[in-house]
Amino acid sequence: VYLATWRDYTVAYSNLTKMGYRRDFHNDVEKLRKLQHSSHIVTLVGSCNTTLLTEYHRLGPANHIKTILKSKNFSKFNDVRTRFNLSLSFVEAIHFLHNSPIGTLVMCDQHHLLKTLSQYLITEDFNIVVNDLDSLKEVNSTAQLFIRCRQRQLRPGFVSPEELWPFENETFDGSRLPYYDEKTDIWKIPNVVNYLLGKVNGSDVVRSHLFKVHRQCQNRDPKQRPSANVLLEEYKRVRDLLFP
Fold first, then answer.
1. Could you tell me the superkingdom of the organism this chain comes from (predicted)?
2. 115: which residues sit within 8 A by CB, 6+ positions away?
């Protein structure tokens, strides 16, 4: 990915160099085109063959948030309000993906915390937009359409229980991994938000107000976890209570 100028606009220029990733690249472009009418998705400037131009966000990916907010230029924004707004923006992005015009979409490239955050960009006004869409997969519980994001063995901790190898004393076989739905995204939200909130004054107050719903998010039974709709409403309630 390069910084480039196109018709006097600064853009992010991506060029596919490894043809083995051609399918992922074109999936990314296709999803970008279909989801362009949302403020939660990075703006597509254009694409041609193996080249992609998107809106440039100088603050970069969300996994750099600690460095950004500690920097001289942005340290004045390193407060609980900014960090909660980032967290709310992240939940809004997940809510959009789960209710998108092309179906319920799951972010499959989220097997550890910083990798998850690297899929999102921070905007100039400290919101979060989805940037990497190549690993989005559709689920539809009504139609019994479920997914397996990766057919490899993952370590417990960040990923949801249903993504793990369930047969403790048997040799791993990716073809026997269970299928699951969008509730795997919900499981990860508390850990992402905990990172975004950081350790600034007031962040523990926010955590206390989110404690109950976050505990529900990490229920081992996916069916008992709240939907993105319910979760977003709870975040808005906390926002209105703490940051009127």
1. Eukaryota
2. 63, 109
Select from 1.10.287.1080, 3.30.479.30, 3.30.365.10, 1.10.510.10 the CATH code of 59-242. 1.10.510.10
Render pLDDT for 18-63 as a digit per residue (tens, 0 to 9). 777 777 888 888 999 999 989 999 999 988 888 888 999 999 999 9
Query: Average of pLDDT values for 188-201?
Result: 97
Rounded to whole angstroms, the Cα distance separating 235 from 89 reads: 10
Tell me the backbone φ, ψ of residue 102, rounded to 5 degrees: -115, 20
Task: Please identify which residue in the block is written with the tokens 């999803």.
Answer: 31
- The reply to whether the predicted model has a pTM over 0.90 is yes
Residues 6+ apart with CB under 8 A from 243: 81, 84, 85
Which residue, among 218, 161, 212, has the nearest Cα to 186 in the 3D structure? Answer: 218
CATH superfamily of 1-56: Phosphorylase Kinase; domain 1 (3.30.200.20)
Residues making up the chain, counted from first to last: 244
